């Protein structure tokens, strides 16, 4: 018995979409989105991931929420981990850095200059903690720069909210 062509095509489309929904692999586009949200910048932007996650990777599906954090003191690599038993970890390079390791500033006018006194706020859902600090480089509103709380403190990256205020978002 022959079936009409539209019926066969609809069966093939339904089968392929059902297979995509039950894929044993983690969605790599989701990882790119979570890294962009963590960094506050998109792929290829200053302060964002240098490249998207390699599409050839076949990472096991992660049932838990992914864990993202900085790898190393220079904060130029994001560590993405699946906390499931037998999970995986992935390192994503952060772009927008010049040869000295300073964030490249976009063409927008700087809202903060190097050496400016700042308020550094660490903010998350339902809380905010702030401390005085210093800008280690210049940047525009919305840009990411290195800041420190004292001369001996390890620099951290923060987003410029307005002149005199930078924010380190915590999810």
Automatic annotation (TrEMBL):
InterPro entries: SAF_FlgA. Keywords: Cell projection, Cilium, Flagellum, Signal. Residues 108-167 form the Flagella basal body P-ring formation protein FlgA SAF domain. It comes from the Bacteria. Pfam families: ChapFlgA (PF13144). Residues 1-20 form the signal peptide. The keyword Signal applies. This is Flagella basal body P-ring formation protein FlgA.
């Amino acid at each position: 018995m022959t079936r009409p062509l539209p019926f066969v095509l609809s069966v093939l489309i339904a089968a392929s979409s059902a297979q995509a929904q039950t894929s044993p692999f983690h969605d790599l586009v989701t990882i790119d989105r979570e890294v962009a949200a963590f960094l506050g910048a998109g792929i290829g932007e200053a302060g964002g991931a240098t490249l998207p996650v390699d599409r050839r990777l076949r990472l096991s599906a992660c049932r838990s929420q992914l864990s993202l954090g900085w790898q190393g003191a220079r904060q130029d690599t994001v560590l993405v981990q699946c906390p499931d038993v037998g999970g995986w970890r992935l390192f994503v390079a952060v772009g927008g850095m010049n040869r000295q390791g300073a964030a490249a500033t976009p063409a927008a006018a700087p809202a903060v200059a190097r050496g400016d006194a700042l308020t550094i706020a660490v903010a998350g859902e339902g809380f905010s903690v702030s401390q005085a600090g210093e800008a280690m480089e210049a940047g525009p509103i919305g840009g990411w720069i290195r800041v420190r709380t004292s001369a001996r403190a390890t620099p951290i990256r923060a987003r410029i909210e307005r002149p005199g205020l930078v924010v380190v978002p915590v999810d």
